[in-house]
Amino acid sequence: ATVICSDKTGTLTTSKMELQNFVSVMLPHGLKENDPSSVFIAESVAANSTADLSRTEKGVETLGNPTESALLLWLEKAGPSFHYLNLREQFQIESQLTFSTERKFMATFGRSSALNGTEVLYVKGAPEIILARCNFIGKNDGAFPKDEASAKEIENQLVSFQSRGMRTIGIAWRNGSLGSADLSTEAVGLTWMGFAVIDDPVRPEVPKAIRSCIDAGIEVKIITGDNTPTAREIGRQIGLDVNGPGATLTGSEFAAMNDEQALLAVKALKVLSRAQPLHKQRAVQLLQKQGEVVAVTGDGV
Fold first, then answer.
1. What is the pLDDT of residue 301?
2. Residues 6+ apart with CB under 8 A from 26
3. Within 10 Å of residue 35's Cβ, how many Cβ atoms?
4. Average pLDDT of the chain?
5. Catalytic residue (one of 7, 199, 200, 226)
6. What is the phi/psi pair of residue 128, to 5°?
7. Phi and psi for 196 in degrees, rounded to 5?
8. Cβ contact 125:140 at 8 Å
9. Residue 59: is its pLDDT beyond 80?
10. 254 pLDDT exceeds 80?
11. What average pLDDT does range 205-216 have in this prediction?
């Protein structure tokens, strides 16, 4: 192999995710017992998830998506009022749209126990995708219209965590019935709840492994569905030169290039963020065109 294209989450990182913070106007002091906003946000996390927790002699084990599991563990630690199974069972799910790498969000529609049986659509996913679909920002006594200033404030908060290598998950909702059965088109006009900050540290053995590859003349490139600041910071932590010209690209930027442009770009590339499976395939094929022998590693291969 002359080039290794590696996924990030669970390959370069431990995938032992822990929620560090939940940034929300609605939760200035975290989850609190008998607080309507806390119960509402907890219900959105519990209902709009496919993960589970299992109790064994060794303690609580996570089942399913590690990011969703970190959110459920956050609820578990907050107290018995926020037990995710009780919240999930009390929410009457009518339809659900599972997460996809192309769409980058998940949505669940049903009747909310926290809102006395009101129909509600819960949405979570890539923060920039969710925020773009929001018209309002939630607060304790309702919501206020999203404007350029409030959106910029949230974006700055996101970058402050992402640039430290943290994963961020945006959460939003919308009241009212559906106009169609397609939840992907219904997930608009949302109200922003906030975002979760999740730590997924680099595997301790990875920086040395990357150095061994580079010393052997093997290039290493990160190709991940995660956001750019997080992916860049993980690249920096493992020893890649992420500040060189053309070192970072997003999947959409890469897709917009013609083959001639992409052929040049993929050589200098160190981090391809917000990448979809077809972007990964194109990168590998373009490298092969240049005579590279390409290895690909990751749980999504």
1. 62
2. 37, 40, 41, 138, 139, 140, 193, 194
3. 17
4. 93
5. 7
6. -70, -30
7. -90, 140
8. no
9. no
10. yes
11. 96
Half-sphere exposure of 235 (CA within 13 A, CB side): 30
Alpha carbon distance 142, 36 (integer Å): 11
Report whether 146 contacts 192 (CB < 8 A): yes
Q: Which three-class secondary structure state does DSSP give residue 23?
A: strand
142: Cα within 13 Å, side-chain hemisphere: 4
- Whose structure tokens read 């304790």? 140
Angstrom distances, CA of residue 259 to CA of 165, 195, 220, 282, 291: 31, 37, 21, 9, 16
Six-digit token pair at 188? Answer: 């608009």
Residue 192 and residue 131 in contact, taking contact as beta carbons nearer than 8 Å: yes
Are residues 113 and 91 in contact, defined by beta-carbon separation less than 8 angstroms? Answer: yes
Contacts 24+ apart (CB under 8 A), 138-143: 138/24, 138/25, 138/26, 138/173, 138/191, 138/192, 138/193, 138/194, 139/25, 139/26, 140/25, 140/26, 140/37, 143/191
Tokens 């109790």 sit on residue: 55
Instruction: Kindly state the tokens that stand for 193.
Output: 């709840």
Q: Is 215 a catalytic residue?
A: no
Token pair belonging to 267: 């050589």
Query: Is 28 in contact with 243 (CB distance < 8 Å)?
Result: no
121 in Cβ contact with 52 (< 8 Å): no
